[in-house]
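Q: Start with the shorter request: fold the first protein.
A: Done. Sequence, then structure:
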Amino acid sequence: MSDLSKVTAVILAGGLGTRLRKVVSDRPKVMAEINGKPFLYYLLDQLVDASIEKIVISTGYMGHLIEETVGSSYKKLQVDYSPEEIPLGTAGALKLAGRAVDTEQCLVMNGDSYTEFNLNSLLLSHEQQTANITILIKNIDDTSCFGSIQMNEENEIIEFIEKKHTEESGLINAGVYLINRSVLEKISKKTPCSLEYDFFPNMIGKGIYGYETRSKFIDIGIPESYAIAKTFFEKKPVSV
């Protein structure tokens, strides 16, 4: 079993949530309720189950609601916050949150998607590949809303492909990343700066790999997928 004491989790929860605004308008999207519980709690429970001990929540839009609701701890998790004063983009927000990370690796999770995965297996793959970044990926039937990823036979990522308007199957970024803390310094200081469009493509050929999961995945960032989240999580009771 891998040493999870070397991992701090970071949840990127600072997005404006504009696509979801017409159905969730009074709170950040990570606090959107599903079966009576904030979506964030599903992510936090996933981290508790994975034996993570410390988490940094990167906040932005209406971030005070997250701090007021969660506080400084959640079950066995120590919770810290990294508030953005201005929108920094996903990479900029991670760079800022990285100041609170004092472990060798950080497990980064998008605040609007949930993917089932085994953290021990992800960490083992990351270490075996001597990777700087390992992106959790998933094969889906329609990549048109996400864009897609191409890897070589060694699972090294060789290309990020922009969204297409046609339905095509392929590998997508599932919104979970294992990143060496030292690599966070390579993120550009420009703002806003995106992980998906700026940082990750710039790391091709510099130790960026994919790790495929065949488990369940949902992105709640649009009203259509948010509407099916209730069914998705029905078998995942969350206690406060």
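Q: Next, the second protein, separately.
A: Sequence, then structure:
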Amino acid sequence: MKFLVESQYLPSVAYFVVLAHAEEVWIEQHENFEKQTYRNRCEILGPNGVQRLTVPVHGANSGKPVQKIRIDHHQKWVNNHWRAIQSAYGKAPFFDYYADFLRLELTKPRQSLLELNNCLLTFCLKMLNLPIKINYTEKYDLEAPEGIFDLRSAIHPKKGLEDLSWFRPESYYQVFGKNFVPGLSVLDLLFCMGPDAIMVLKKSGVFQ
């Protein structure tokens, strides 16, 4: 199957369920930036519950193309995100295995949100051992080309996971909380399940 999705920051488990069931994926890179979405935020599970991590950007309200959105490095977001990730997953079974690689990726100097997201996506795919062909759109089309499922903005903070007919979240061990929390950043799955993460992704999707 082939899918069209938007660029996201450390995307959710649901996002990677799509990738785990795909032959090819196209990343939309010519849309206008939409604020209050997962394009520049993700969610992790810490000692105080679900925590949102947001990458500050310039021009969030300007309707600029996502390619032109620049990261606001005047804010110490990298340090804040890393401390939050350490607090949430420092005791997770596979934190030590992935942590140094992730920190290296986060601290590399990058100016654009799209570049950051693309590099982190590549990192996550490598850690998941998920070989998939990633393409990038050459122009914006209101509708996806024939034969490609358009899932742009399907995974959205203001939409419930129950709206995703293909997402059947498989529960797995999490560090905090008594009740399983689905749909967090893929970091939650990686740090908690390690090499078995791909199996969880495969079991969590139903595509026909």
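Q: Describe the second briefly.
A: The radius of gyration is 16 Å. The CA atoms of residues 119 and 129 lie 15 Å apart.
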